């Protein structure tokens, strides 16, 4: 089947959509690439999903891509004594390394590498962007923050630092295990989360060794202007939909990065995680 449209549609497979009949129906509806999210599910789940995609491929007599999306490092808050606290704009509290369960005045953030990277005036995004904080005074083992938006915080919520480079590897031990499995079952693409520098992709490409194409998830707005093109016809660049990528200037920055080198043969995905009515024009391009 020859597609008239230039964009391609990427769909994530999960418990409600990875059955063979549903995968075939999605492909018939126009999906071109199926994403396996390695943040969730077992290896058996992902193997079954890939088998369903290959079955749909045969039934529909057209190629379908499979993308293995690696989880990447998880940066999280500690725990609260009461599990959850209420907050509002203007609320002030402290993040530190003390493992004592927190309250409305302080809570643990067990990541010394974040404290080292923070600077006064930077923003922090918690709970997938539902809570935005501004950094005030800080030291090597604590930071005072002020709530700019959000209503509550609870145990183990994720932390994103869109304006800083965090000195952690983009590939965790879990990612390495998942990558070996994904290559073994024959995925077409591998996506790396939390890419901060070109060396992150170089390491992934070394491990992949040509067995699949590589895709970088560019989740920090400031990286659009600084990240080098990852490679001709081999890697892709993604304006990803994580909390760090949810930024009013991200789409123009993404377009500018794409147009600087339009003939490089690098495919792009522009994700819109908050879109509620399916795929919108300009959402995907792979």
Radius of gyration (CA) equals 20 Å
Q: What's the end-to-end separation, in Å?
A: 16 Å
Overall 3D geometry?
Answer: elongated
Number of DSSP helical runs: 6
If strands are numbered along the chain, what order do they take across the biggest sheet? 1-2-3-12-13-14-15-16
Average pLDDT over all residues:
84
Structure commentary:
24% of the residues lie in helices and 26% in strands. The protein has 286 residues and is an alpha/beta fold. Strands 1-2-3-12-13-14-15-16 form an 8-stranded mixed sheet, with helices on one face. The protein has a 6-stranded mixed sheet with strand order 6-5-9-8-7-11, with no helix packed on it. A two-stranded antiparallel ribbon has the order 4-10. α1 links the parallel β1 and β2. α2 runs parallel beside α4. It is elongated, with a radius of gyration of 20 Å. The two termini are 16 Å apart. The C terminus is likely disordered.
Keywords:
eight-stranded mixed beta sheet; six-stranded mixed beta sheet; disordered C terminus; about 25% strand; about 290 residues; elongated; alpha/beta; 16 strands
Give a summary of the structure in a few sentences.
This protein is an alpha/beta fold. It contains 6 helices and 16 strands. The two termini are 16 Å apart.
Which helices and strands occur, and which strands form pairs?
Elements (H helix, E strand, L loop, with lengths): L8 E5 L6 H10 L1 E7 L5 H18 L4 E5 L14 E3 L5 E5 L9 E3 L3 H6 L5 E4 L4 E8 L3 E8 L2 E3 L4 E2 L12 H13 L3 E4 L5 H11 L4 E6 L16 E5 L10 H11 L7 E3 L13 E2 L1
Parallel strand pairs: 1-2, 2-3, 3-12, 5-6, 12-13, 13-14, 14-15
Antiparallel strand pairs: 4-10, 5-9, 7-8, 7-11, 8-9, 15-16
Helix pairs in contact: 1-2, 2-4
